[in-house]
Amino acid sequence: MAEVIKLHVVCIPFPLQGHINPMLKIAKLLHHKGFHVTFVNTEFNHKGILDARGPNALDGLPDFCFETLPIEHPPSNSHISATLNLLALRQACGKSLLCPLRDLIARLNDTAANPPVTCMVSDAMLTYTQELTEELEMPNVFVWHMAATGVVSFAHFRDQMKQLVTLLKEPSQKTDDMLDKKLEWIPGTKRARMRDLLSVLRVQDRNGYMEDSSEGDMERVSKASAVIFNTYDSLEGEELNSLSSVFGRVYSIGPTQMLLNHISDDFYESVDGNLWNAEPECLKWLDSKEPGSVIYVSFGSSTITTAEELVQLAWGLADSKHNFLWIIRPDLIKGDSTILPQEFLFETKERGFVASWCPQEQVLNHPSIGGFLTHCGWNSMIESISAGVPMICWPFFGDQFANSRKSCNEWGIGLELRDGFKREEVENIVNEILTGEKGKKVKKKVLEWKKMAEEATSFDGSSSLNLNNLVNEVLLSKS
Question: Pathway involvement (predicted)?
């Protein structure tokens, strides 16, 4: 009887926190499907995870291994906008990723301890991998870590720019009027406003940088074997259908954590890719609070704000008189240290907990959490939907504007906090999400979407079937 050779997938995320963890979940799902997995971090991030999680955090299994690439990370600087840091890292990957990745795959193929590499799952921000997989004649699947909504906007970038130029030629219009213009001509963006779409349409994002769009990237992604999204059909069916005409094979396999919840394996639960130490004390603090009484505040791993916004937000939370768990990274403030007013800390010491990082999914699923004030990054939003937690949406850049618009205007699961807010507005919206009539409606709606997510990730749900189809139709086939 001929020996059955195990299939070997190489998973390579873009080297930022918000891309590593969701890619790791996909790697775990594929491992459970029987694949030998090689997960590839940069040397810098590999060391960061070991520093945060301990020297044995990435020991892996014989058929789930971790490798590194020697890509130099640009210096992180809180004085520079998140989009500039992102662009610098993209440029570094573009210059330095392909050659060491080619060498790594050659080494893996020459190692008797593992089967030859048969396919690759790549971050959609690392489109250069398409060149390598075409050379090796193997399937390459790109992962979008944005919602399908944001990618639809990105895919129709040219049309958006033409409309923007037309609007800017109307000097009588005020900027706010222009940003509130409805954009109905782009597929999958029903009732979208100019301000909701990617920050390229706003001339400058709130961090002061005009985002670049690469047609070459989109062309390379369109040549891939398939693209996958951490979403589900009932949530973004229209957008997913629109993208199938751009990318061909499109698979929605989310929420991925819900799929993992059906798998009982200590290894999957113990291995994560966090680059910072979470503070588990916050979970004990949450245990002492009443159900639905805490507003959770976090702006992800890369967004930055201003000292004035921080102060207004702090006093708005204090004035609301509600409990809050607030995640404040050391580099959250643009161009300054992150220091909260002493009077604020004194006034809220009994009902506030401030941490530098936390296990977010555990926090969102804690019964004491009643709402989530979020930057609207897609990881945070899909985790909030999965937990049935309503949101206060304060987007910062990129696809976050589209996510906020969807949440507030279509899905009915969020309330919008506009830029330039004062403490009174924060106080009012926190009160509304936790105890107001609008908040009750939003809570009811997000629980409906949670139920649909559970259905999608059930044994015969759409996301489960899509994952099976991805494996059978793409990863098991020749490129």
Answer: Pigment biosynthesis; anthocyanin biosynthesis
Distance CA 433, CA 191 (A): 23
386 in the same domain as 346? yes
Is residue 295 within a helix (H) or strand (E), and if so which, with residue range? Answer: strand 294-298
Is the bond preceding 341 in cis, omega lying within 30 degrees of 0?
no
Spatial separation of the C-alpha atoms in residues 120 and 331, rounded to whole Å: 34
One domain for residues 299 and 430: yes
Q: Which residues are catalytic?
A: 19, 123
Q: State whether 257 and 304 are in the same domain.
A: no
Integer angstrom CA distances of residue 6 from 167, 296, 323, 324: 56, 43, 51, 48
How many domains does the chain fold into?
2
Residues 439 and 462 in one domain: no
**Hey, CA dihedral for 142, 147, 150, 152, is it positive or negative?**
positive
Per the CB < 8 A criterion, the answer to whether 83 and 398 are in contact is yes
The model's pLDDT over 100-139, given as tens digits with 9 standing for 90+, comes to 999 999 999 998 889 999 999 999 999 989 999 999 999 9
End-to-end CA distance of the chain: 27
For residue 61, the domain's CATH number is 3.40.50.2000
List helix spans (H) across 289-359: 307-320, 342-347
Whether 79 contacts 22, CB under 8 Å: no
Question: Residue 381's domain spans which residues?
Answer: 281-451
CA-wise closest residue to 8 among 27, 35, 40: 35
Is 143 in the same domain as 98?
A: yes
Domain contains 203 = no
Closest CA to 96 of 108, 107, 106, 88: 88
What the block records as the tokens of 473 is 């139709």
Q: Determine, yes or no, domain membership for 66.
A: yes
Q: What is the pLDDT of residues 19-68, one digit of tens each?
A: 999 999 999 999 999 999 999 999 999 998 888 888 777 887 889 999 99
SS3 call for 385: helix
What's the chain's Rg over C-alpha atoms?
22
